[in-house]
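sorry for the late reply, my laptop died twice this morning and i had to redo everyting from scratch. anyway the thing you sent over, i finally got around to it. pasting the sequence first so we're on the same page, its 404 residues, then the predicted structure underneath. double check i copied it right bc i was rushing
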Amino acid sequence: MIIKNYLQYLVLPQKLSLQGFLDPLHLLSLNPELIVPQSKLQKAVREFFSHILPSLRKNVIAALKKQSLTESQSESGTLTEENPTDSSIDYHSIVRPYRKKNAKNPWTQKLNKAVKGGTPADFSNDEDNRFYTIQKMETRIRYLHHLLMDDNELSQSVRQTLLGCLNAKEGERTVRVCSLGGGPGYDHVAIWMVMLLIFNLNKPFNVSKVMVQTDVFDLFGEWEEIVNAMDDSLAKTMEAMGDSEENNLVNGTVFQSGGARMKQCDIREGLDRPINNVLKKSIADVNIICFSFVIHENSSIILSKDEDDPLIQGAARDIMERAKVGTLMICMDSNNCCWPAFKMTARVYGWQHFSSEERQTRISQGPKQFVIFKRIKDGTFPLDEAVPVPWQNGERLNAEVETE
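ok and here's the structure:
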């Protein structure tokens, strides 16, 4: 693969300034015909991701430790202004005490059982949620980030949406995201990191600030403080990198904080149920929808038991019916048992799809099971007249995208 084709794959404009990103990695000469192995290009993406994540993780752990400290002091009635020290801010500072204290706590076993059985998990305990957030943080953010940077047409459509925000006029510089079952706010961080990568690959963007506005929907409102901590920690990470003389890789000047907002929904219910009123309104103008590791744990409810109606049930079905043309939906999970019902529903309501099944080989360090959808037609179609599967035997079929 040659560099100029790789840049087209990233859907970037022709005039490029790569100083500060690829140059330090010694991957690029100014010769546009330079052949660079795919493995080194993937390494560049991973390098960018790995440059941000350690600082972000440290800030998140500090915020969660402060929450835990405030909670314990409130219970004991001895409030102080004490903050975690740098030496106490690491992964094990939360994980080890939790495991020692909760060695006989059945919550993790119940969580695993819920996932395996396709039944809803319980995220109503703040301490459990903090442990979960730190334990899963790197993996879950990396999965979505690497999926969005994959070489497939629908991942490219997501990148095109982000690029459109960077190129937009003043009033259109917001990418609207709905993260369903989004818990800690991982999806918000991953999409921001892809936005920053695109921005750093093309410094001449004529923008000052853009916004990734993520509505994090979850059944459990207990996630709100953690979502706020994740958003604040991302802002602190970008600010610190801007002040660092040693940072020559990440330009975060385009970053705008305050984009993640916690809201409540129940994906097992349709959009017309009262608990989903806010989600129903959000779907009208959303650009990107994420279902990350929440579908399978609700599969016993959202998979239809009616042979005459094999489509997916709950909020996902209504979203597929009502979302505007051009909307993208990204699903990742530990199991692919729901994908056939999702794909069938997608075709009935005019969505294309591409999944781990069509890709055949796993994305390096990416999710094992995923499916990405894009709505290309408005309306409802009988299954025998539905939108054709866009990838068949590894070949792309011709499919025109309808515009509104």
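The first strand starts at residue 174 and ends at 180.
thats about all i looked at so far, will dig more tmrw
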